[in-house]
Design brief:
The protein is an all-alpha fold and about 140 residues long. The protein has helices spanning about 1-5, 10-20, 25-30, 40-55, 70-80, 80-90, 95-120, 125-135, and strands spanning about 60-65, 70. The chain has a two-stranded antiparallel ribbon. Helix 2 (about 10-20) runs antiparallel to helix 7 (about 95-120) and helix 7 packs antiparallel against helix 8. The two termini are about 30 Å apart. The model has no long low-confidence stretch (mean pLDDT about 75).
């Protein structure tokens, strides 16, 4: 167990940083959708519309309940994505909370895979760690 923790200590540090950073949001539940970008304006609306479409068996070609309207082709991406399948079973009222935890998982995975990629590019472990933290916690990701 100690060997596994020592091997993944940087990944655990990144996950700890994410959890501490999002702790006020997790505890207070204020501004749950912390990434006020595509998550809130597009993806959340499509997921909520997709859950409602499945609940009411309403697969009309055009739907005006989501903003200016969406068509079935735009909904197809969200209905068949693996993240939608995970969110669908949570229920309609827990979708917004799931986005926060999915974003924490996505950033942790980005950190892990950036570290794996950086090991092939850089020779020094310090460069690998700095590169992974820079990419994972950059403003572009957030």
């Amino acid at each position: 167990m100690k060997k596994l923790i020592y091997k993944n200590r940087y990944l655990l540090t990144a996950i700890l940083c994410l959890c501490i950073g999002f702790l006020p949001v997790i505890i207070n539940n204020k501004s749950v959708l912390i990434f006020n970008g595509d998550d809130f304006h597009q993806i959340y609306q499509f997921y909520l519309g997709g859950v409602r479409k499945l609940a009411f068996n309403n697969f009309s070609l055009y739907d005006f309940s989501i903003g200016f309207g969406t068509n079935a082709f735009a909904m197809a991406y969200y209905l068949f994505s693996p993240f939608f399948l995970m969110v669908y079973f949570l229920g309609e009222n827990l979708i917004q909370y799931a986005f926060l935890y999915m974003n924490i998982i996505k950033i942790a995975m980005l950190f892990y895979f950036t570290m794996q990629w950086s090991k092939e590019v850089f020779k020094h472990q310090t460069s690998v760690i700095i590169g992974a933290f820079t990419v994972s916690f950059s403003g572009w990701v957030f």
